[in-house]
Design goal:
By secondary structure, the protein is mainly α. It contains 19 helices and no strands. The longest helix has about 35 residues.
Length: about 425
C-alpha cells in the first residue's frame, strides 16, 4: 500500500513515466480487440477448421481458451510472488509480452485447415497476453502516488480503447477492401492483421521498457533461490489474504460484478445475433464501444480522484444494471448502438477504478503477487455469466430473459462492494 501520509513530492506525477506505462495498454489491447474479440474466432471456424463441423470447431476453440485461462489461474499468484522477491516484475512482463508477440505474428504462417497449429499458437499468445498483464498491473504502484492511482490507471484503459480501436478499424478495412492494401483477398487481410498486431504490440511496449523503473524489492533474491522464496511468500500471502478481510471482500465483490462486465463483452454479439440483428451492425457497435471508451475512461479516472474509486464503481454498476434491463426490451439495431455507447461510457471506468482501488488495499512490496490473485479472479470471470445466460435462454426458450440473469451478478457485486471499507483496508495493508 502507498502511505496515507505521502509527501507532496511523492504525489507529483512523473508524466513521462505514467504515459510510458499507460502505452503498454495501447500496445497489447490490439491483441484483445483484433485477435481475441475480432478475427481469431471467425477465422478459426471459417479457415483453419473449415473442414470440421461447426460443433467440433466450437469445441476446439473453447478448449483453447479454457486451457490458456486454466494455466494462468494456476500460475498467476506464484509468478507474481517470484517477480516480487526477485525484483523482476518488469522483466517478467516483457518476457511474456515477447511470447505473445512472437506467437501472434506466427499465426500468419498457419495454412488453411491447420487448426491444431492455430490453436497451439493462440494458447501461447493468450498466455503471454494474460500473464504479462499481471506484471503490468503490479507496476502501477511504482508509477503513481496514491492520489494519482485513479487517473493513471484510467489513462491506461483509455489509451487501450483508442489504440485497440484504431488498429482494429484498420484491420477491418484490410478485410473489406484488400485491394486497397495490395492484398489478394480477405483471408490474406486477416493473416496480415495478425502481423500488424504483433508489430503494434512490440513497438508501443518500448516506452515502458525505457522509462518505467522496476519498483524496489526488499530482501531481493536471485538465482534458483527466488523460486523457493516465491513459494514461501505465496504460502504467507494465502494466510494474509484470509487476515486482510477487506481485500477478501473486495475480491469477492470484484469477481461478481466483473463477471457481469466480461459476460456483456463476450456475449453481446451473440445476444444481438439471437435477436436477429445483422452481423455488420454488431461490428459497428463493437467499434462504437472502443472509441467511446477512450474519453470515458479518462473521465472516470477524474471522477475517482474527486469522489473516490468505490463511488465511481457503484455508478458504473448502476449503469450496467440499466443496460441489462434495457437490453431485454430492445427491438431495433439503432438501440443496440445506443447500448454500445452506454457500455463504452462505463466499461473502461469500472475496470480502471477496480485496479486503482485494489492497489490501495495491498502491500506495495507484494504488488506482483497480490495482482496475481486479482488477475486470477479476472480469468475466472465470464465463467458464471455465460453459463447463466445460456441456461436461462435454454430453459425459457427466450434469449431476452438471458440478459436479465446478469442482474444477479451486478446487484450481488454491488452489495458486497458496499461492505468494503477502503480506509480500514489501507490500514490493514500498512500493518503487514
Amino acid at each position: 500500500m502507498i502511505s496515507e501520509h505521502s509527501s507532496p513530492e511523492s504525489e507529483r506525477l512523473d508524466r513521462r513515466r505514467a504515459v510510458s506505462w499507460a502505452f503498454y495498454d495501447w500496445a497489447n489491447s490490439a491483441f484483445a480487440t483484433t485477435v481475441i474479440a475480432g478475427f481469431f474466432p471467425i477465422f478459426f471456424k471459417q479457415y483453419w477448421s473449415a473442414e470440421a463441423s461447426v460443433t467440433e470447431s466450437t469445441f476446439w476453440l473453447g478448449a483453447a481458451n479454457s486451457l490458456a485461462s486454466l494455466l494462468i489461474v494456476l500460475l498467476a499468484p506464484l509468478l507474481g510472488a517470484i517477480a516480487d522477491r526477485g525484483g523482476a516484475r518488469k522483466r517478467f512482463l516483457l518476457a511474456f509480452a515477447a511470447l505473445g508477440i512472437v506467437m501472434t505474428g506466427a499465426l500468419y504462417g498457419v495454412g488453411r485447415g491447420e487448426w491444431a497449429w492455430a490453436a497451439a499458437l493462440y494458447i501461447l499468445a493468450l498466455i503471454g497476453f494474460s500473464a504479462g498483464n499481471i506484471f503490468y498491473d503490479a507496476l502501477l504502484v511504482g508509477v503513481a502516488g496514491e492520489r494519482k492511482l485513479d487517473i493513471v490507471s484510467a489513462l491506461g484503459y483509455s489509451l487501450g480503447y483508442l489504440g485497440g480501436g484504431l488498429l482494429f478499424a484498420l484491420n477491418v478495412l484490410m478485410t473489406l477492401y484488400p485491394g486497397w492494401f495490395g492484398l489478394a483477398d480477405a483471408a490474406e487481410g486477416v493473416r496480415v492483421s495478425f502481423v500488424t498486431v504483433a508489430l503494434w504490440w512490440a513497438l508501443f511496449s518500448v516506452p515502458l521498457w525505457l522509462f518505467v523503473p522496476e519498483p524496489p524489492a526488499p530482501d531481493r533474491v536471485s538465482g534458483l533461490a527466488v523460486i523457493r522464496a516465491g513459494l514461501t511468500q505465496l504460502r504467507g500471502t494465502f494466510r494474509e489474504v484470509r487476515r486482510l478481510r477487506v481485500v477478501g471482500a473486495f475480491l469477492l465483490a470484484y469477481w461478481l460484478y466483473i463477471d457481469g462486465v466480461d459476460t456483456v463483452i463476450h456475449m453481446a454479439v451473440d445476444y444481438g445475433l439471437a435477436l436477429g440483428f445483422p452481423a455488420d451492425s454488431l461490428i459497428v457497435a463493437l467499434l462504437i464501444t472502443q472509441f467511446v471508451g477512450f474519453p470515458a475512461a479518462i473521465a472516470f479516472g477524474r471522477l475517482g480522484e474527486i469522489w473516490g474509486p468505490r463511488t465511481g464503481i457503484f455508478i458504473a454498476i448502476g449503469v450496467y444494471i440499466l443496460i441489462t434491463i434495457w437490453g431485454y426490451f430492445i427491438r431495433h439495431p439503432w438501440e443496440f448502438y445506443v447500448l454500445a455507447v452506454a457500455i463504452g461510457l462505463v466499461q473502461g471506468g469500472v475496470q480502471s477504478l477496480s485496479r486503482s482501488l485494489y492497489a490501495r488495499l495491498i502491500p506495495a512490496e507484494k504488488s506482483g503477487e497480490f495482482f496475481g490473485f486479482f488477475n486470477m479472479l479476472g480469468k475466472f470471470a465470464a465463467v458464471l455469466g455465460p453459463v447463466l445466460m445460456g441456461a436461462v435462454s435454454l430453459l425459457t426458450g427466450n434469449p431476452r430473459f438471458s440478459i436479465l440473469s446478469l442482474l444477479v451478478l451486478f446487484v450481488g457485486g454491488a452489495l458486497l462492494l458496499a461492505r468494503v471499507d477502503e480506509a480500514e483496508g489501507r490500514r490493514m495493508a500498512g500493518a503487514l
